[in-house]
Design a protein that fits this description.
single chain; 74% helix; globular
Length: 266
C-alpha cells in the first residue's frame, strides 16, 4: 500500500480514536498496531513485546518512582506553608503582591518534585485559601497557580524529561541542564504578566497591603526558605556538579525529603 495513503489512514484513525474518548496511550497503541498491519509486518506481537520490555527495563527509569515518592513526602510536610511565609514579606509591596507567591512557589517546588500535579496540589492547598481570604481575585489566583503548576514539566528534575531521555536515548543530565534556563525564563514571563495585570486591575487587589514590612522581617522570613533551597542544592547541585547521576540524585532527594518530614513530625 502506498505510504501516503497509509499516513492518511493513520492520521484519520488517530483523530477518530481521540474523538471517541479513548485514552491517548491506547489510541497511540492502536495506531501503531494498524500501521504495522498496513505496512505488511506480521510480527506485531513480537515487536510490541520486545520494544515494551526494552523500554521498561531501562535503569534510568528508576529515577521516576523516587522523584514521585519525594514529591509525595514533601506534600505531607508544611513546605507550602513555609514557602508562603518566606516569600510573602518580599512580595507584599510588589505589583501583584501575593499573586507572585503562586508563581515563585511553584517554580521552587518544581525544582525538587519534578511533577506538575504534585506542584499544583501542594502549593494550591496553602495559597488559594489564603489569597481568597485576603481578597485577591479568585480567577487570577487560580490562573497563576494553573499556569505556574506546569513548570514541573520543564524545570529539572522533570519527570517528563526523564521519560523523554529514556525514549530518545539522550543524556538525562544534559536534558536537566538544558531545561533549567527556559524554566526560569518561563517563570519570569509569568511574573511579568502578573505584574502588568496588577497595574491595570488595581481594583481586584486588596488595598490593605503590608507595605510597612521592615527589612529585618524580610530577612528573618528567609529562614523559612532554607530547607527547600538546601534540598534543591542537594539534588540538582549533585547532578550539575557531576557527582551523581539523576537516579542517584533522586535517591538523595528522597532521603532529604524524608528527613524534612521526620524532623517536623518529631
Amino acid at each position: 500500500m502506498d505510504m501516503t495513503l497509509i499516513s492518511i489512514i493513520l492520521a484519520v484513525s488517530m483523530l477518530l480514536f481521540l474523538a471517541a474518548g479513548l485514552w491517548v496511550s491506547l489510541a497511540l497503541i492502536g495506531v501503531g498496531v494498524l500501521g504495522l498491519y498496513l505496512s505488511g509486518n506480521e510480527q506485531i506481537g513480537l515487536l510490541f513485546a520486545s520494544s515494551s520490555w526494552g523500554a521498561s527495563t531501562s535503569w534510568s527509569l528508576t529515577a521516576l518512582p523516587m522523584f514521585i515518592w519525594m514529591g509525595e513526602l514533601l506534600f505531607r510536610t508544611r513546605l507550602s506553608e513555609d514557602l508562603f511565609k518566606g516569600l510573602s514579606p518580599w512580595l507584599s509591596s510588589f505589583p501583584g503582591k501575593l499573586l507572585h507567591v503562586n508563581v515563585l512557589s511553584c517554580g521552587i517546588f518544581a525544582a525538587v518534585s519534578g511533577s506538575s500535579a504534585a506542584t499544583a496540589a501542594t502549593i494550591g492547598r496553602m495559597t488559594l485559601p489564603e489569597l481568597k481570604a485576603q481578597g485577591y481575585s479568585e480567577k487570577m489566583a487560580v490562573g497563576t497557580l494553573a499556569g505556574s503548576g506546569t513548570l514541573g514539566l520543564l524545570i529539572p528534575p522533570s519527570i517528563i524529561l526523564i521519560v523523554y531521555g529514556v525514549a530518545a536515548e539522550v543524556s538525562i543530565g544534559r536534558l536537566f541542564i538544558a531545561g533549567a534556563l527556559p524554566g526560569i525564563m518561563l517563570m519570569g514571563l509569568f511574573v511579568g504578566y502578573t505584574t502588568l495585570w496588577a497595574l491595570f486591575n488595581k481594583d481586584q487587589l486588596p488595598q490593605h497591603g503590608k507595605d510597612d514590612i521592615t527589612w529585618s522581617i524580610r530577612f528573618k522570613a528567609l529562614k523559612k526558605l532554607l530547607p527547600i533551597v538546601a534540598l534543591i542544592a542537594f539534588v540538582l547541585g549533585s547532578i550539575y556538579g557531576g557527582f551523581t547521576t539523576p537516579t542517584e540524585a533522586a535517591a538523595l532527594g528522597v532521603f532529604g525529603a524524608w528527613y524534612s518530614l521526620s524532623s517536623r513530625v518529631l
